[in-house]
């Protein structure tokens, strides 16, 4: 019984070293050194080609190296195959840091001050308490809840929106499409932490932006396909939106010449809002494999019907 890792080879070597140290009883292989394919019972990957799994007749579980499983192509996988996304403390902490950084930068006008400095202009903008900035998080899952805890601790006026009503201390909870407008109407900083599914693709579009108050900003740390790029640019250029912090793109790396590269109000990072931290992720994988062997529930099991 072996686990096969198929993703970035440099990180794969780090996974293998730690895995062998912490679970020497479980054979851990790194692609392309997959050994006898019949011995592979667990695969961990970020993305796979549609026919890749056919070579592993005894595969029992597909794990994702990341929190979002959209690149595994759920629709192409055998219907009964359990898929498990990454839930580990390192990726959660990282997202808390990144969104806190973005929310504080927006709230304290860091992007405007950078533009003023570039123009050599000394100008004082109003300093407001965090409670005057209303942050709304789309998606109140493992990452969204953690982010909201961090933001609430700074005193931001926080709300969350998800399919089912979120119940989080000090956070206003909104549920479903019927409450989306009310959630957006009270949001100055909108953070997208949704999984990419058929329901959420393209959700960050002109109609959603129009429902935000004038002067609101958007932080997309979900997936590039949540965003309609042209609608964002129109909302920024028309003055309805103030700033956009964009960590994820339709195509990564973002192609040369894409208007985001040079837009003064778009602030880019190369999909680094959060990253699976190998030392803690190895423990999460080992715990899940042992749970599966023992017939216990695995943490992060994806609901194949919902797509996340
Ligand atoms: P999660 O625990 O599965 O949470 C997903 C949340 O989204 C849940 O609250 C869910 O609602 C809500 N949701 C799903 N579909 C919805 C819909 N149609 N309408 C309203 N709410 C919906 O996921 P997670 O671990 O927090 O991760 C979220 C996403 O973050 C990942 O899928 C990935 O795309 C992204 N991510 C990005 C980075 C980065 O570096 N940029 C890093 C890690 C993850 P319910 O609670 O009602 O089910
Ligand atoms: C990164 O984007 C992840 O989903 O883990």
> CATH architecture of the largest domain, please?
3-Layer(aba) Sandwich
DSSP helix fraction: 25-40%
CATH superfamily of the largest domain: NAD(P)-binding Rossmann-like Domain
- What CATH first level of the largest domain would be assigned? Alpha Beta
How many domains in all?
2
Summarize the helix and strand pattern as letters: EHEEEEHHEHEEHEHEHEEH
Distance between the termini: 27 Å
Number of strands: 12
* Average pLDDT score: 98
Going across the major beta sheet, what is the strand order?
8-7-6-9-10-11-12
The oligomerization state is single chain
Number of helices: 8
Give the biggest sheet. 7 strands, parallel
Radius of gyration (Å) = 21 Å
How would you describe what is shown here?
The protein is an alpha/beta fold and 308 residues long. It has two domains: 2-88 and 276-294, NAD(P)-binding Rossmann-like Domain (Rossmann fold, 3-Layer(aba) Sandwich), CATH 3.40.50; 90-268, 3-Layer(aba) Sandwich (Rossmann fold), CATH 3.40.50.720. The chain is 30% helix and 18% strand. The protein is built from eight helices and twelve strands. The protein has helices at 9-22, 89-107, 110-118, 142-154, 180-185, 206-211, 229-237, 278-294; strands at 2-6, 27-30, 40-45, 61-64, 83-84, 134-138, 157-162, 171-175, 189-192, 216-220, 241-246, 266-268. The strands form two sheets. It has a seven-stranded parallel β-sheet with strand order 8-7-6-9-10-11-12. It has a five-stranded parallel β-sheet with strand order 2-1-3-4-5, with helices on one face. Helix 2 packs across helix 4 (142-154). The longest helix has 19 residues, at 89-107. It is elongated. Bound molecules: NADP nicotinamide-adenine-dinucleotide phosphate (NAP) and glyoxylic acid. NADP nicotinamide-adenine-dinucleotide phosphate binds at residues 66-68, 91, 95, 139-144, 162-164, 193-197, 199-200, 221-223, 247-248, 271, 273-274, 308.
